[in-house]
Design goal:
By secondary structure, the protein is an alpha/beta fold. It contains four helices and seven strands, in the order E-E-E-H-E-H-E-H-E-E-H.
Length: 157
């Protein structure tokens, strides 16, 4: 399978084909609203504003698997992110990124870039950078800020 073969749910639980992002540079992130890394939304939004007109998209997947840090509904998460951080990039329905119920797209991403501690995602704000051909070119730990990712994004743009 390729990245563009997957469909995901948007906040309204409607299917969205990732094929609609073909030809773009993507940053796919699992997020949470009550995490110590939540302020990274500011940097993510700035990164998005800088490169969106050049074919860059951020795909935000809230996840409540880590210490119950995203317990709200999809709409409440969206309202929080738009109200507090001015987020305008695409936010999807809440997903699991590990375990039996993990979203297939995250299983696929982890297979391509396992990370330092194996394939499991260890915490919120793990980031996967995907090139215009749908290849996963990098995986960034939660501690790697959007500002530190910018050079990698710029290379792909």
């Amino acid at each position: 399978m390729k990245l563009y073969d997957f469909s995901v749910k948007n906040r309204a639980q409607k299917d969205v084909s990732l094929d609609s992002y073909a030809g773009k540079v993507l940053l796919i992130v699992n997020t949470a609203t009550a995490c110590g890394f939540t302020p990274q939304y500011t940097g993510l939004q700035k990164l998005y504003e800088t490169y969106r007109d050049k074919g860059f998209e951020i795909l935000d997947f809230p996840c409540n698997q880590f210490a119950n840090q995203a317990p709200e509904s999809d709409e409440e998460i969206h309202d929080f992110c738009t109200g507090r951080f001015g987020v305008t990039f695409d936010q999807f329905a809440k997903v699991d990124v590990n375990g039996e119920g993990e979203a297939p797209v995250f299983a696929w991403l982890k297979k391509r870039k396992g990370g330092l501690f194996g394939s499991s995602i260890k915490w919120n704000f793990t980031k996967f950078l995907v090139d215009r051909e749908g290849r996963v070119v990098a995986r960034f730990a939660p501690t790697v800020t959007p500002e530190k990712i910018e050079a990698s994004v710029a290379k792909l743009i």
